[in-house]
Each structure stands twice: as C-alpha cells, then as structure tokens.
C-alpha cells in the first residue's frame, strides 16, 4: 500500500497521503497538500500528526491495531474544538492514477 485516503463521513472530503519513507520502523505517509503525516508512534500507535509531531487523529478503538500499516477503519480527528469521523481507505495505485490522468 503506497497511498491512503482519509474520506470525511460528513461530506466526502478526501485527503490523500503518499508513502514517504519510514518512521519508527514503519511506513510513514505524508498528506499531499500539507505537512501532515500518518505515522506510528510508540505508546500511541497509528495517528496523524502535524509538522510539530502533535497528534490530531487516531483510529477508533474498535479498529484493528494494525502493526505494519495504519488500520483501514474509522478514524476521529480533532483540531480547534472540532471533531470529524473519517474512513481510512487504500489510495489509488500509481498505475491507476497515471491511467486516469492520461484519459
């Protein structure tokens, strides 16, 4: 899995993340448009973090723990007193993206 999509349940807004190296021995995913990362942190597990490393979303407790990759389940975000639910899904494969953009 080289890309991920966080799809907001409220309105379908989609944030795309692409694998960009590793962090703490696991894949690290960077959001396309901002310095936001989906990473595994010791003691916390998978979460998204801002540029300063401050967590701002995590999978719901009912999601699978996901050792090697972020769990594909519901995630809750929080920022500035707001909270949203997202579904984490695999992103399009590189070949699918290239094929779509050439059509």
Strand order of the largest sheet: 1-2-3-4-5-6-7-8
State the major sheet.
8 strands, antiparallel, barrel
Tally of extended strands?
8
Distance between the termini: 24 Å
Q: Uncertain runs with pLDDT below 50, 5 residues or more?
A: 96-103
**Helix and strand pattern:** EEEEEEEEH
Rg over CA atoms, rounded to whole Å, is 13 Å
**Shape category:** globular
Quick gist of this model?
It contains one helix and eight strands; from the N terminus they run ββββββββα.
Report on this structure.
The protein is mostly beta strands and 103 residues long. It has one helix and eight strands. It has an eight-stranded antiparallel barrel with strand order 1-2-3-4-5-6-7-8. The longest helix has 9 residues, at 94-102. Residues 96-103 have low confidence and may be disordered.
Layout of SSEs?
Elements: E1 3-8, E2 14-23, E3 26-31, E4 37-41, E5 45-49, E6 55-59, E7 74-79, E8 82-90, H1 94-102
What structural keywords apply?
single chain; mainly beta; 9% helix; disordered C terminus; globular; 8-stranded antiparallel β-barrel; 103 residues; 50% strand
């Amino acid at each position: 899995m080289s890309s991920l999509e966080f799809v907001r349940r409220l309105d379908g807004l989609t944030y795309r993340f692409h694998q960009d190296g590793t962090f703490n021995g696991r894949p690290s995913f960077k959001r396309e448009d901002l310095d936001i990362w989906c990473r595994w942190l010791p003691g916390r597990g998978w979460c998204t973090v801002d540029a300063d490393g401050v967590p701002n979303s995590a999978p719901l407790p009912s999601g699978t723990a996901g050792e090697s990759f972020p769990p594909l389940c519901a995630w809750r975000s929080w920022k500035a007193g707001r909270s949203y639910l997202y579904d984490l899904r695999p992103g399009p494969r590189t070949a699918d993206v290239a094929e779509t953009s050439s059509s």
